[in-house]
Design brief:
alpha+beta, Hect, E3 ligase catalytic domain fold, 3-stranded mixed β-sheet, 3-stranded antiparallel β-sheet, binds zinc ion
Length: about 350
Amino acid sequence: MAPYGYINKCTEDGRKYVAIKEPEASNIIWAFKQVAKGHLPTAIVRVEMNKRDGRNISLNAFMEALKNVAYCGKLLLRANGKEEEKIVEGKHEPLISEELFMKVQNVLRRKGTKDLRLPGGKAINDERYPLRGILLCPTCGNNLTASGSKGRKKHYYYYHCSSACGFRHNSDLVNELFESELSKYEFRPGIRKILNTIILQNFKSVSSTIKDERSIITNRINALNERISKARDMFLSDKIDEDDFRDIKNRYKVELDELKEKLGLIKKSPESEIETKLSLALDAVINVADRYRNANLIDKRAIVGSIFPEKLTFDGTSFRTAKMNSFAKSIFLIKKELGGKKKRGSKFEKS
Ligand SMILES: [Zn+2]
């Protein structure tokens, strides 16, 4: 069987080859990137991946997949008699780079899959530091890690640089700052309807070309059916004989079948699907700050990952990131446009 994300195919002259299969291919690419990032435990990456469209995968199969050289375009030749096991170039298209593949191997080597551990082996069981390993140092760009120290009277907790650069910041304060950062992306239930309309309109303008193609084909099918039915009328009223009728019918039938097949290949009206997906996505962002506040450690990290696909640089007062989830970004921009800015980010009394 072809690995997850690939499918075995056959050319017309009978040659076998391996082709890419979506959406599984995108899923496994996403999973490799997530594991390499070390944001979430590997087992959780699988659970998150299974929530996406496409075939689900067991934990065993997932762990095997992450070690499969096929994904970076190679082929593993098992040892046989004289020959040792070796890796050669495959003929199929790689889904990921060799570099990403090696990165994931390093991550897997360094941690067990049973425990919730980050690459490097650090357990992420400390509820106090949900952002450990997600933040980057503004001074030197290394990961910020976290730890506590005991002062004369009480404990102090910090996110601090993993290198010797000395950057550190009170972790309670950073956590609180981050919660207000998240609230920039959420919205009041009242504007849900407006957001829904705006996003759907944007989508419809993009998808209208697909709709055009569908309607051209549908019109042609209707026209052909009409001709056949006219011919049938003529045959029934003895204006043409049976052979002529059959000729006409067969001639149109070939084209009809082709058109119907074409129509099936054009994605089925994406609108009905997009409405459900949009609704789910809106639900996910609507109270994101609250959901984050009340989530457990793992869910917290999953929420961060869903909005910020890459690490965040914390500069002591605010968060910067190279890349943002485009959906969250649209919401941020639309909110700004609507003028629904509430000054939430300015309450910094220590709690
Ligand atoms: Zn640093």
